[in-house]
Amino acid sequence: MTRDTEERQWVLREMDLFRDLDEDEVMRIGEATRMTTIPAGQLLYSPERPNELLFIVKRGRVRLFQTNADGRTLTTAILAVGDVFGEMHALGQRLERTFAETLEPCVVCVMSRSDVERLLLGDPRVALRITEQLGARVIELERRLGDTVLKPIPQRIAALVARLALASGPTVRLTHEQLADLVGTTRETVTKVLGALADRRLVALKRGRIIVPNAEALRALSDEDFTVPTGG
Question: Which of 17, 25, 60, 122 could form a disulfide with 21 if both were Cys (CB 3.0 to 4.6 A apart)?
């Protein structure tokens, strides 16, 4: 066994996706997995260069986004360690008009269609976790789209930041521009709303981070009738 293969197996063992597998099962997946280090700001997938590959995030964060005719972007998901994505018909996973971009330096594991079908979909434990993860991503996107229709922008921003903090802890690592893409507004509007939330001591603003000391209080505010002079 090469040192590179050992490193890939260690990477896979650290992922929740493969937590029930024994050493031999992890070894087979590790031998079929290509692990790649990618700098920030690089496209992993684009509709112009489609490829049927499955990506598993080992380190860093990846943004999935779409663009419209006038060049505006809509972020559909921000993926972290253990998340999977890719154009993989066997999983019902279609990126279509979606781009995938690294938000920070990343390490990703890459698998071909044949290896996914042989090693992942053939194991009901792994297949179930992948299905659950993809399903949860669809539910989150539907929730955000519902907020876009039903909630004003300030409540929309508060609701999303609260959900992210409840899911991943009090530090939400998003820039104002990234948050704007997620809720469908402008960076300037996000800055004004976050400033108002900071005045209420519901968030603290750091460079590239939003600290949420009480996510439940922030979520409760997202259901209230509060306004911010956004100008956009």
Answer: 25
97 — pLDDT class (breaks 50, 70, 90): confident
**Left (φ > 0), alpha (ψ -120 to 50) or beta: where does 130 sit?**
alpha
d(CA 40, CA 82): 18
Which DSSP letter does residue 84 get? E
Instruction: Give me the phi and psi of 202, to 5 degrees please.
Output: -90, -20
- The mean pLDDT of 49-69, rounded to a whole number, is 83
Q: Provide the phi-psi class of 153: left if phi over 0, else alpha when psi is between -120 and 50, else beta.
A: alpha
**Mind listing the pLDDT tens digit for each residue in 10-19?**
555 556 666 6
Token reading at 112: 């071909």
Q: Report the C-alpha gap between 124 and 130 in whole angstroms.
A: 10
Answer for the pair 107, 59: CB distance below 8 angstroms, yes or no.
Answer: yes
Exposure string over 90-124, b if 16+ CB within 10 A, otherwise e:
ebebebeebbbbbbeebebbbbbbebbeebbeebe
